Amino acid sequence: MSTDYQQARAALGVRLRELRISRPGGRLTGPQLAQCLGWAHSKIYKLENGKQTASPEDLRAWVDATEQPEAFAELYARLQGFESQIRSWRRQLASGHRPVQENWNTEIARTKVILGWQESIIEGMLQTAEYARHIFTRYAQLQNSPRDTDEAVRARMRRQELLYQPGRKFRIIMWEAALHARICPPSALAAQLDRLAGVIGLDTVELGIVPFSASLKIPTANGFYVLDNRLAVTEDWHAELWLEDADSIALYLNVWNTLRKSAVYGTDAQNVINRARRSLCSP
After folding, report:
1. Among 219, 236, 225, 272, which residue's Cα sits nearest to residue 124?
2. Are 3-84 and 88-279 the same fold in CATH?
3. Which CATH fold would you assign to the domain 3-84?
4. Which strands form 205-210's sheet, in the order they lie side by side?
């Protein structure tokens, strides 16, 4: 979990403790507050020590129990502030993958220039429906989230319509490893590689591949996007990070430009894709 996120959650915990201690009707101990709210005492401990993220309902119950309902707006603003940056997969996927995809559709629709890096899977904007179906299935199993695979695939496929709208630019770089990852059956991967080769030359797409043989200025790491130089988005196993501060955006731009120096394009990229395609037929 990011240091900034943990610090913000800890600061919220300190404020919760202040409200408990400064209750107008008299200070409450942790066990007393837990009993009042019908919670386990451990929850009070975790919230006040930044070990658990409060829900809006938790905050409302806390301010009511500590007789300071006017503090709710402040606490809720704090919660929104750090949760807008760190978007837990557990919460995002509570209703399945389709809402997440639709949220992305909205964000990409208002973006003119998308810079992307993928090190382990094919870029979502360039996936076939079958490949995407396997991706969503794997992640639903991992996160134990609702299985809305077909709806999620349809939402992702709708986003790909933007590839054919003039005035947009999708500048995507992928590591060669993404072309070989058998997250799906070989037949599905073969069709996916054919699709990938087919977008080279599309005037809205600049596709670069970093070959295994390339000299790397920095190690390959998590996939990310920079949207119109206004937003950087990356993900980890526990959460997706949406970063709007200038320093973070500048860092991700620097990473993207550094990786780009190792990429090949056009015919050379086609050759890397074709090599991966042929490897599927190797014994």
Report:
1. 225
2. no
3. 434 Repressor (Amino-terminal Domain) (1.10.260)
4. 86-88, 239-243, 231-235, 224-227, 113-118, 169-175, 205-210
What residue type is 167 in one-letter code?
G
**Using one digit for the tens of pLDDT, what is the confidence trace for 226-275?**
999 999 999 989 889 888 888 889 999 999 999 999 999 999 999 999 99
Phi, psi of 117 (to 5 degrees): -135, 130
Neighbours of 74 (CB within 10 A): 15
User: Could you give the CA distance from residue 6 to residue 53 in angstroms, rounded to a whole number?
Assistant: 10
C-alpha 259/C-alpha 178 separation (Å) is: 15
CA separation for the pair 70, 198 (Å, rounded): 58
Residues 6+ apart with CB under 8 A from 223: 116, 117, 118, 119, 120, 121, 234, 235
- Report in angstroms the alpha-carbon separations of 125 from 42, 128, 142, 158, 236: 44, 9, 22, 10, 19
Alpha carbons 56 and 159: distance in angstroms, whole number: 32
Domain boundaries, the chain: 3-84, 88-279
Give the whole-angstrom CA distance, residue 87 versus residue 81. Answer: 11
Model pLDDT for residues 150-184, shown as the tens digit of each residue: 999 999 999 999 999 999 999 999 999 999 999 99
Question: pTM (2 decimals)?
Answer: 0.76
Class of domain 88-279 as given by CATH? alpha beta
